């Protein structure tokens, strides 16, 4: 039987052990806990505004709730959210969910899809042979995740010391600076890579590149109505090359 309230309670029990921890910078556990709740809330709104089958909605809600389960043990052990310097948090999360039986009592088909979506949600590209239900659920998780990551990054760019700069991978604000490879990714309609980033403006460009990878109308609309698009462009260097990007990104989000 699927019961979101029960699953939420299980996640809270899991997270509380980390929220009570004093290792590294404890505020970062709170950051991820709040992010989880926001991603779940995004999912509730997305499924409400999108025509989807009931079992897809259930899978998506559970997958969004558990999508960053791996972030808690990752940060506890390694003191970083950088997968490249620690562990793949998505695969770790899927393993933790299975080992702790956090989806016990949920129908097997939903359980498999949820764990699969958690494991896949951070992939740059999804495998071409991904089953249809898993593909749709993973795309929902990715959209809901991206919309809230935009919130987290934009809020913390204005207060870079609040969380020890962990969300920015240690990068700093360098006015006027952009990395050519990151800008080229946005111009070509592909996602910018974390590994190419050298400054906070590159994060802003990365967020713009995500417009090309938002899969649902609700998500694309949220990037505009929440003011994220305007905030990003307002804080990027005002040169002709960047200014010419704005109508391109707007068309991607409104078409």
Strand elements, count: 0
**Would you tell me the overall average pLDDT?**
93
* Residue share in β-strands: under 5%
The residue fraction in helices comes out at 55-70%
The DSSP helix count reads 13
Helical/strand content category: mainly alpha
Radius of gyration: 18 Å
Characterize the overall form: globular
The CA-CA distance between the termini, in Å, is: 39 Å
| Main sheet specs | none
Low-pLDDT runs: none
Query: Helix-strand pattern, N to C?
Result: HHHHHHHHHHHHH
Features:
single chain, mainly alpha, 13 helices, globular
Entry summary:
With 255 residues, this protein is mostly helical. Helix content is 62%, strand content 0%.
What does this structure look like?
It is a single chain. By secondary structure, this protein is mainly alpha-helical. 62% of the residues lie in helices and 0% in strands. It has helices spanning 4-19, 27-48, 54-66, 71-78, 89-99, 108-120, 132-157, 180-188, 200-209, 217-225, 228-234, 240-243, 245-254. The model has no long low-confidence stretch (mean pLDDT 93).
Topology (elements, then pairings):
Layout (H helix, E strand, L loop, with lengths): L3 H16 L7 H22 L5 H13 L4 H8 L10 H11 L8 H13 L11 H26 L22 H9 L11 H10 L7 H9 L2 H7 L5 H4 L1 H10 L1
Helix pairs in contact: 1-3, 2-3, 2-7, 3-6, 3-7, 5-6, 6-7, 7-9, 8-9, 10-13
